[in-house]
């Protein structure tokens, strides 16, 4: 198994052994997570792809890997075109590809613990048109041929104190119970890891960069609950925190428990609960309500304690990032600096706060052409020097007990070209337009996406990713249901208390990338004479935007005023945390345009 070609051959041999003509390999786990533990990194092991979203299909003579626009460049660098076809979503889909490539009567395998029921139905329908069938497997064939597959994490659960959560776990369970009662349901299955962490005010360390634990939960209409977690993860402190109303079981018992609801009405989320959960509930005689996880919206709408915690985390994180930007301004002109060194130094500035638990994702540290790879992950073989005359893009964040941060800055190293300045400023104008937006209550994120793209579109330019994603409270850096995007979501009405990113960008393949990202809080706005309840954004991230990269003459008077006001706020929040040369640098970086 020393090469990816060997691994592909081994999988094909295993498929032939179990009489399957193909198999689908998604990048997810049994909880439909975006970020997964090492044990679930099947796609990376099979193909070499290191992105955070993608899927693959393996047939006897063909294989294809499916990624979205964020990974168009990355997949070509990491996955061998001699063995894999590159497919773009949403332009195509696995179901559509299989319809065109699977043979008449083919048996295509899938793991029902890694797909939703909707996906199974769609793929089955497509295959039926060519007389092929989708076949569930009891054991994932990738696991059978992965000789050194890591075991799931055995890290202990920890308690997320109410001083950070703002509400007790008992209150949250009661809210779910009330939700169930209003729908005449007996129980709700929670399978999303962040939903379980939020509901029970617990955290874990089973997924890199995301403080969640591998668990399932079932909450009942009497506000009691059953939680399914590996026994070695529990200790007396967590058990006492959960209390007598929460019964703790081995995670291995969860599948069997789903068969015990004969005659009962059980809610499960069709987007977040895998097909196997629905199948076992139905086989056990339960009446299943396909409803959105009742935790999703309350988790997304931050309470006052979570908002206060996030502001504190952002202030701390902004100071760490500002120290890094000052260090970069001194170090980069001297030469010899590279992407890995810069990423490590930025992490150290965050660790110097004494409050960093983990990064919120692997730092994207892209110099020159690597900055054009939207979700670039630096490693030894791709590590580039940060050279004069280039743009350096750094997208990073921290996990703190009181909040999760995510911020991108693009820095001109030396003198930027006129084109770099022009395109940086187009991105900035879009960022400002979204930051200043006022919109009626009920507006969806997808309706706002064009605000950030309009100036790029006017020049025939664009970017192949969403403009904004939700962010958790010491949880996932990508949190739904809210998004600012015209594809792949964006249809959730924005509500006060939601936190999102504002991150338009521009990427010139082979040359440079630009992204400006702050986190924003949806807040109520008092608009004189308004006939509708109005909302807007409060910017939460505090760190300088590179003045040297701005073509000031392309900004309107109002846009310049926004930049100056933003930098004045950065000074107010960050300056008291700095001193010496770093403080002097910050004053210059935040000087009025």
TrEMBL record:
Record-annotated Creatinase N-terminal domain positions: 7-139
Report the residue ranges that make up the Peptidase M24 domain in this protein. 310-524
> What is the protein's given name?
Xaa-Pro aminopeptidase
Family according to the record: Belongs to the peptidase M24B family.
Instruction: State a single Pfam family of this protein.
Output: Peptidase_M24_C
PANTHER family recorded: XAA-PRO AMINOPEPTIDASE 1
A molecular function GO annotation: metal ion binding
CDD domains tied to this protein: APP
- Is the Hydrolase keyword given for this protein? yes
Q: Which UniProt keywords apply?
A: Aminopeptidase, Hydrolase, Metal-binding, Protease
What are the annotated GO cellular component locations? cytoplasm
Which InterPro entries does this chain map to?
Creatin/AminoP/Spt16_N, Creatinase/aminopeptidase-like, Creatinase_N, Pept_M24, Pept_M24B, Peptidase_M24_C, X-Pro_aminopeptidase_P
User: Please, which domain of life does this record's source organism belong to?
Assistant: Bacteria
Q: In what residue span(s) does the Peptidase M24 C-terminal domain sit? A: 533-593
> Does this entry carry the keyword Metal-binding?
yes
Q: What is the E.C. number?
A: 3.4.11.9
Instruction: Give the source species.
Output: Sphingobium fontiphilum
